[in-house]
Amino acid sequence: MRLRLLLLALGTFAVGTDSMVMAGILGLVARDLDVSVPAAGQMVTVFALSYAVLAPLLATAAARWPRRRLLLTALTVFTVANALSALAPTYPVLLATRVLAAAGAALYTPTANAVATTLVPPERRGRALATVLGGMTVATALGVPLGTYLGRTDWRLTLWLVVALGAAAFLGLALLMRELPAPAAAPDLRARLAPLRNRRVLVAAATTLVFFLALNAVYIYLGTAVRPATGGDAGRLSLVMLVSGVTSVAGNWLGGRAVDRFGVRVVLLAGGSAAAAAFLALPWASATMTGALLYAAVAPLAGWAVAVALPHHLVSIDPSSAPLLISLNSSALYLGVAAAGGVGSLALTVLGAHWFPLVSTVLALVAVSLGAVSTRRRAVGGGAGGDGPGGATLIATSSGTAPAPARATGSPQGVAQAGRTSGITSGRALG
């Protein structure tokens, strides 16, 4: 049982690494394919936008497929697409392969979440999801810096690492994953979009979109932002990425405890404000390696604490629609990541490599303002519906199936799981 969960997590680790590691190799891709760094950054945009659009469509189209076949098909598409990315001779071909990789990722991650809940008794579903989705957050701490280091001389080696991870997950699941229970009846696309008629849901989803737009507009071009400190050295950049990844995992874990103790509103406002301050300081912090590492410690810690609070708040608006709202949060997250490539590119062009993080400062403050508005009513009401300390948390897979209650104990299997289920690990991104 545990081994199969770890194999599912290996697949999410591959997806998380693929979606986030591009930030560390943009410069090499740009030089090799003779495009600008902002243009190379559109690889992240294309992947994230494709994921956001394809996830609900593919989940609906494949709702009746046997889950084992669905997992293996998704990993096949994902792994082959990354092999094609590694072999891509031109920039347009590379972009096309990123769409294909996103399709495999969008099919795999929700299915892996759903399968995890069928492998264990109901009282252990939170732990099972934490194991599988932990692959996404661990990707930020290990996969991204490892991929960045491997690609320091040839960015294609980074993608071959993702291919190896995807192939290993495929072989393990093909050998050890027995036939799984038939999937439960899934809602159609119209039902999945029904919560969009609720204004509070729209504001909360917009908060997620804008905040991840702010977070990733800097993260995608982090190599450029900290270049004064790293001097273009891949080893130094890998260290910055490692610190960023480790503090992302810490932020996810600590965010769950903070939401449980202080409530969603406090975490949203405090974490969002801290992230905005880190973006504001980056043009000066990037002058030295110490400053760059300090930024890499503070911004992801605050950002991923907020990432836990966002889906928690969205679910609290309508707990009966928890699976659909978690799916909506995931789509809003990836739309934010998708837009971040373009916004970051525009900011680089207009403001230059030194000052472009200031755009993220403004966006983060907008997200904080939206969060303040969307949580105000619940805050006045004394934490009803899960917005206040100790509010109930619902566990739901992004495929829209198998919701399960979790005890709000402050552990990663309690409140924080709602954040992990949104798919960032992380993200960051991703997956």
Note the total helix count: 18
- Described by the principal axes of the CA atoms, the overall outline is globular
Trace the largest sheet across and list its strands: 1-2
Q: What proportion of the residues form beta strands (DSSP E)?
A: under 5%
Mean pLDDT metric: 79
Number-wise, the strands total 3
State Rg: 20 Å
Structural classification = mainly alpha
Largest sheet geometry: 2 strands, antiparallel
User: Which runs of at least 5 residues are low in confidence (pLDDT < 50)?
Assistant: 378-386, 390-431
N- and C-termini, Cα separation: 23 Å
* SSE topology string: HHHHHHHHHHHHHHHHHEEHE
The helix fraction, in percent, is over 70%
List keywords for this structure.
431 residues; mainly alpha; two-stranded antiparallel ribbon; 18 helices; 3 strands; 76% helix; globular; disordered C terminus
Which helices and strands occur, and which strands form pairs?
Layout: H1 2-20, H2 26-33, H3 37-40, H4 42-61, H5 67-87, H6 91-118, H7 125-150, H8 155-176, H9 189-193, H10 199-219, H11 222-225, H12 227-230, H13 234-262, H14 264-285, H15 289-317, H16 322-355, H17 357-380, E1 393-395, E2 404-406, H18 415-421, E3 425-428
Helix pairs in contact: 1-6, 1-7, 1-8, 4-6, 4-16, 5-6, 5-8, 6-7, 7-8, 7-13, 10-15, 10-16, 10-17, 13-14, 13-15, 13-18, 14-15, 14-17, 15-16, 15-18
